[in-house]
């Protein structure tokens, strides 16, 4: 079985998507279209696929490479809960992929390499001098009675009494309105850096608007968008990716309306899980919101390898 490093424009999409669909540990974030969104949105971003193949693709690890001031950082997969190797492979083959990845990045002027391990299958990375970082997400299990508790929330009941319209996004102008809410929320939380440019939202809309894999819902009040939520649907899971609401419309409870709609939509399609994504440790309000809707904490790990230059950059950031 041969090892290959393949760029997005060289990828056999049929083989890759078949691997993604049949792998036990795959997610929406492993799809080639997610990599395409990144490449189209950031000029210094490149998708790389480390693949074991023998006619078909048997296993693979996708990475997104960022370049800034001549230095590289690698992530699998930004910025979602899932990442890592997919496909059926032995421990030796898995280690072969990891060794090839480490060899590749260390030959570059790299700052850091991160590999997400949501299912606890990559502990061998510690032997390759990766630092093991603990983090968590929240998941709603639709077979659990907890998946119903959010519908009895006072906030959800209030949202049903408001004159709100909930619909799927239909135009680029509506995507722009959502992005303005994103910027307003980022300002409210005093974020030092905007993670996503509008180009990212535009590419999401353009590439996925006609796909069953994205559900981008908006809440309108008197024809004005006051909240939105972007979800990805893949196999048996709905993934919450991003959302925001107008600060002056919170009494209308649009976030509860969106959450209730998403859960009902997923249950109607007999999905098993709703991954609500990660939360900052100190984001007590966000964590409480997820748990009020039946989200159960799921601890997982991110493995990170940082170069000497990367450590200096991190130190400088803390000092400055």
Largest sheet: 13 strands, mixed
* Low-confidence runs: none
Number of helices: 9
Strand content: 25-35%
Corresponding CATH architecture of the largest domain: 3-Layer(aba) Sandwich
Task: Give the tally of β-strands.
Answer: 13
Radius of gyration: 20 Å
CATH superfamily of the largest domain: Gcn5-related N-acetyltransferase (GNAT)
CATH topology of the largest domain: Aminopeptidase
Global shape = globular
Instruction: Just give the CATH class of the largest domain.
Output: Alpha Beta
Mean pLDDT: 92
Query: Distance between the terminal alpha carbons, to the nearest Å?
Result: 48 Å
The succession of helices and strands, N to C, reads: EHHEEEEHEEHEHHEEEHEHEH
Class inferred from helices and paired strands: alpha+beta
Helix content: 25-40%
Number of domains: 2
